[in-house]
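Suppose you are handed a protein chain with no further information: no name, no annotation, nothing but its sequence. What can you learn? This example shows the usual starting point.
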Amino acid sequence: MDINQDENQQKAVYKDPQVQKDLNTPLQDPSGVGDENDKFLHLVMQLVEDGKIELHTPSTLINTEVYDKLDSEKKGKADYEAINLLSAVREMKDLFDAGYKNTYQMENLVERVKNMKERIEDEKGDIFII
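A reasonable first move is to predict its three-dimensional structure. Written in structure tokens, the prediction is:
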């Protein structure tokens, strides 16, 4: 038995374009995104569409009135978290634009962003505009 031939046979199914399409399509959630998460998702998407959140500028997530009152250590932590939040917002935007709004992946992303935001704001105040 040729190991390379066996490996190629195993990989052949994953080289099929339809299989790749199926594997890369997020699963639809039949119940959809919950009402609270749907409102949050649309709020974030509207802020992006209005230009208030720029997808490659983390500082656009910052509520400057609260941020300016923080000490330098808390500002540094807020800056770091803004980068992480914005990365998740970009993922949400990509899924939203691709028509994958009612998917398990979107539900998890929205929950992740909300939880990150709430965890940070519990410590530092209403530091983000979302």
